[in-house]
Amino acid sequence: MRKINIFDTTLRDGEQSAGVNLNFSEKIEIARQLEKLGVDIIEAGFPAASKGDFESVHEIARLVRNSSVTGLARSVQKDMDAAWEALKHGAEPRLHIFLATSPIHREFKLRQTKEQVVETAVSAVKYAVSRFPIVQWSAEDACRTELDFLAHIVEQVIQAGARVINIPDTVGYITPNEYGAIFKYLQENVPSIHKVQLSAHCHDDLGMAIANSLAAVDAGVTQIEGTINGIGERAGNAALEEVAVALHTRADHFGAQTGLVLKEIKRTSSLVSKLTGMTIPPNKAVVGRNAFAHESGIHQDGVLKEKTTYEIISPELVGVSTNSMVLGKHSGRHAFKERLKELELSVGDEEANKLFGIFKSLADKKKEMTDDDLVALVLEETLSQGQNFYQLDSIQVQYGTNQIPTATVTLKGAENESIQEAATGAGSIEALYNTLERCVEGTVNLLDYRIQSVGAGRDALAQVFVKMKYEGKETSGRGLAQDVLEASAKAYLNAVNRVVYMNEKTAVLNA
Ligand code: KIV
Ligand code: ZN
């Protein structure tokens, strides 16, 4: 079996998805989970892009020991210097530099001739290898580049010291056969090609990112780049979980495997979806809610007789639990902690006790707590820690047809003082949010509101995601609760608390 390295760019290309804006602790949380998933390389960000990106890449490189951490840089010294400062303490510092090679980009974006592009690329790689033990070079828009020029520049950057050559389909334009043919061409026409690893990076504009990535594996590529859930620029990148499961399931065809811990897939996917606010379509391959749901009678009958009649991937393989009723309101602390352990949700004793309290009050209202509920609960709690400036005490909302919806809210403020307000609105959520706006002393513009159920059944937990502007700053928040109104209030406060937290942090830094 050939080993295919997995290069995860959820925190860089994935974070470039419209509407996604991860904060420092969310990025760290995702990076730790990617390490657990066993990705070979984590592209943690673009250190020269902003102070925030620099800090998160720096921290991820410091914390992550079992994956190589990389950062993106343009072919300019200032970007490479910033990347070195961010990555130098990493377990295996690696630089990812890129330069566009296609005629369209050369003419309209770079305004450089072919010769100038080669010169820029070579001098950037030479500078990069003087610092980094491993340098990956990407030919941006490679798939719309003249093949002979692509082969020429690739040979030059290999001679300059690049160890990995990435051929991105930047605009999601190529077809699987054509993509495979590009790699074959490079293998036959670049004299030094045997010295490097070849990498594929596909975008999904024409819905071919996975097919193209797999065609690249067929053509001998040993590194695949992509993101969890396929998030990314425009239509997104290749979904890594799909690539890994396809290679596993069709090992007979590909003769290649990744090193991913497949049973961490579901957890990783849920975390990324939760933190980015990008919901997973129910029919999405591998991680969609319906990916293992057999609906038709004929299929159900077949599966009951023999699973493999209609099931080519077992849910357990990717960490999807088929165990629905696990814990309920009669379960004790011990059973609760044991279940957390079985689900490999590592929380300390004190935290487990706190979570048990929350679990008990939820279990009181909810018939059964599934594994999905527990994972959601733990994620929610760990993520909201340290950011609770405003805490929800109680809400009361009155709604009736032909009546004006009215909400009353009691919060605890930063000094534990009680804040109470009431307001009306055109609907229950508006009444609630108008009331909360009075409580938090600042103008709030709601930009997006989404609701999703976690777990199955009528008593599934509600998860709300909001995006808003608070005191002129864009922020987002999540809330999880049995009731949609409570989840909505929590999401609102989570978003506000993030701004308060950031304001405090900035004030301390500037003091
Ligand atoms: O799609 C692309 O070309 C990229 C490069 C920066 C590698 O993301
Ligand atoms: Zn990309």
- State the end-to-end distance: 57 Å
Strand order, main sheet: write it out.
1-2-3-4-5-6-7-8
Rg is 25 Å
CATH architecture of the largest domain: Alpha-Beta Barrel
What amount of the residues lies in strands?
15-25%
CATH C-level class of the largest domain is Alpha Beta
CATH level-4 homologous superfamily of the largest domain: Aldolase class I
Average of pLDDT: 91
Unreliable stretches, pLDDT < 50, 5 or more residues? Answer: none
Decide which structural class fits the backbone.
alpha/beta
Bound molecules: 3-methyl-2-oxobutanoic acid, zinc ion
CATH topology of the largest domain: TIM Barrel
Q: What sort of overall outline do the alpha carbons produce when their principal axes are compared? A: globular
Tally of helical runs: 17
Number of strands: 15
- What share of the residues lie within helices? 40-55%
Please tell me the total number of domains.
4
The main pleated sheet reads as:
8 strands, parallel, barrel
Main features:
single chain; 511 residues; alpha/beta; TIM Barrel; 4 domains; 3-stranded antiparallel beta sheet; globular; binds 3-methyl-2-oxobutanoic acid; binds zinc ion
Report on this structure:
The chain is an alpha/beta fold and 511 residues long. The protein has four domains: 2-276, TIM Barrel; 293-321, no CATH class; 333-382; 391-510, Double Stranded RNA Binding Domain (2-Layer Sandwich), CATH 3.30.160. 42% of the residues lie in helices and 20% in strands. It has 17 helices and 15 strands. The protein has helices spanning 24-37, 51-63, 77-87, 103-110, 114-129, 147-160, 176-189, 209-218, 240-249, 251-254, 265-276, 297-305, 333-342, 349-365, 371-384, 428-439, 484-510, and strands at residues 2-8, 41-43, 68-74, 94-100, 134-140, 164-169, 197-202, 223-226, 256-258, 391-398, 406-412, 418-424, 444-454, 461-470, 473-481. An eight-stranded parallel barrel has the order 1-2-3-4-5-6-7-8, surrounded by seven helices. It has a three-stranded antiparallel beta sheet with strand order 10-11-12. Strand 10 and strand 11 form a beta hairpin. The radius of gyration is 25 Å and the shape is globular. The protein starts with a strand and ends with a helix. The model has no long low-confidence stretch (mean pLDDT 91). The structure holds 3-methyl-2-oxobutanoic acid and zinc ion. 3-methyl-2-oxobutanoic acid binds at residues 13, 72, 98, 138, 140, 166, 168, 170, 201, 203.
